[in-house]
Amino acid sequence: MTLVQMQPRSMSATPVHRTVADAMNTAGPQVCDDMTVEVALSVMASARTGHLLVCDDSGLCIGLVTQAQLTAARDGSTYTDRLQLRDILGDRGPFTSPVTTMAEAEHAMRYSHVDALPVVDEHGSALGVLALAR
């Protein structure tokens, strides 16, 4: 697993002290948790992205859904056209902070078995996404 380098790194920067803010991608599409799976798949396709940040009705980030998760939910035996993102998200998180070191974030991603983490501020608002390179 290699983390995506989204911003140029200065020659004097030492990798040990790099933070998530140095490598995160902009937040990209953010959708509300009451959106249906089918609409979310359409948004994802039109945005040409593999994930969407999901926010609650107060605008706080509550998680991230991937195309694989949405496709699995749509293809599941219990799927209905009223299935909403909040129904498939489960527990809130995992998240990371922009001041988290890259080493800590990579460890958390490996431990959680995720390819992307929402980056949130101290209030829970989405700032970006840290994604693993493919």
From TrEMBL:
Domain CBS: from-to ranges: 24-80
Protein name, entry field: CBS domain containing protein
Coiled coil location: none
Q: Tell whether Nucleotide-binding is among the UniProt keywords.
A: no
Q: Which PROSITE patterns match?
A: CBS (PS51371)
Swiss-Prot/TrEMBL keywords: CBS domain
Cross-referenced InterPro entries = CBS_dom, CBS_dom_sf, Diverse_CBS-Domain
Q: State the source organism's domain of life.
A: Bacteria
Q: Does the UniProt entry include the keyword Hydrolase?
A: no
